[in-house]
Amino acid sequence: MSVHQSNSYPVPSKETERTWQMLFLSWLVALAATLGVLFIGEVMGQEPCMLCWYQRAFMFPLAVVLGAACLLSDAGIWRYGLPLAAFGWVIAAYHTLLVAGVIPKPLEPCGGGVSCTSDDMMIFSVVPIPLLSVGAFSAIIILLLLVRKGFRS
Amino acid sequence: MTRRTVVVLTAVVAVLGFAIAAYLYNRSVEEQAAVALRATTLVRPHSPVFGPEDAPVTIVEFFDPSCGTCRAFHPIVKQIRRQYPRTVRVVTRYVAFHQGSDQVNRILAAARLQGLLEPVLESVLAAQPDWSAHGGRPLNLSKAWRAAAAAGLDVGRARRDMIKPDVTETLNQDMADAEAAGVDKTPTFFVNGRPLPSFGVDQLFALVDEEVAIARKSSGS
Asked: Which residues of B fall within a CB distance of 8 Å from A73?
């Protein structure tokens, strides 16, 4: 398969298939998160708040980079994907705690952009979007750690 | 399937799925907006209401006094009002798609100012074959006036009232709302904002029954 292809990076032959599957899954998560958030923002017309933008800044490149890595069977991508996912996770966790009220909400001047703690942060009026974001970044981190294991073995 | 194929297919499916979901979402949003818009423009404060003001089911009829089918539907609409005296109200919007209809709509507006809308409407509709321009026969407005006078209309007062600016304004508003709702034929009915699936007496009865059932269920719970 792609192992023969000249432009594919060497993936150890053992567990190759499993490692690639983990990589593929991590890309699926990033793709779903990216398209989902674009749907909420661009189709449903809900403007993203500042913290959402920071999370987008880490999720969007993951969707592109992990997709390219799947195409090239490049398991070494974990080195670059993991830091992206980790920074995104930290912001998503902070945002979730803010929405949950664990961290006190900062006072914002009225009309100063979209609030990061408004009711708009709920999807289906039950699940907070930042919590979904934490879930997606967590899944990508775990999957990339598995990819790393397969890459080293 | 090679890995490359899997990746490319996944990307294509994801983008297609996104486009389809966006299209479906936008369409449902547009539909909701259209229903909401109709709710505000189908009934105006100036529109005459037959039946209880707070009835849960509202039939809006776009009506042209020269229209033979409107004349034929008149007893049917009355029958619906008799059938659901507390649940259904009828709101009439006056449009003029025929020669002379604007003048007759002004007679009806003047009759309303004298508290005689219903009797004058009945009398003018009954005489419609005599005065309306149908089948090559010319318009004969004096016969319409005679029918209105027979129902007790003070003709002298009506001739002064019918050219008042607020009468013109309400008739213009009715025409504008008809155009906004896509009404180009009379009669056109909306039952709680919903158009008839297709034109016909049975369809009107069915839609009214359906809305009455919904209203009763929600008030009973």
From this structure: 3
If you measure CA to CA, which chain A residue comes closest to B26?
A: A43
Residue B197: other Cβ atoms inside 10 A: 9
Sorted by where each begins, the domain ranges of chain A are 14-149
> Could you give the 3-state DSSP secondary structure of residue B205?
helix
Q: Kindly list the domain boundaries of chain B, sorted by start residue.
A: 43-219
Helix/strand/coil for B190: strand
Give me the residue label for tokens 């990076």: A9
User: In CATH, which of 1.20.1550, 1.10.1510, 3.30.1360, 1.10.10 is domain A14-149?
Assistant: 1.20.1550
Cβ separation of B22 and A43 shorter than 8 Å?
yes
**Residue ranges with strand state E in chain A:** 122-123, 127-128
| Rounded to 5°, angle at Cα B29 from B183 and A29 | 160
Question: Which residue among A38, A43, A67 places its CB closest to the CB of B25?
Answer: A43
Query: Is A2's Cβ below 8 Å from some Cβ in B?
Result: yes
| The CATH fold of domain B43-219 | Glutaredoxin (3.40.30)
Q: pLDDT, tens digit, for every residue of A13-47?
A: 556 888 899 999 999 999 999 999 999 888 888 88
CB contact under 8 A, A38 and B18: yes
pTM of the model: 0.56
Which residue shows structure tokens 């009915």? Answer: B189
Of A1, A35, A73, the CB nearest to B14: A35
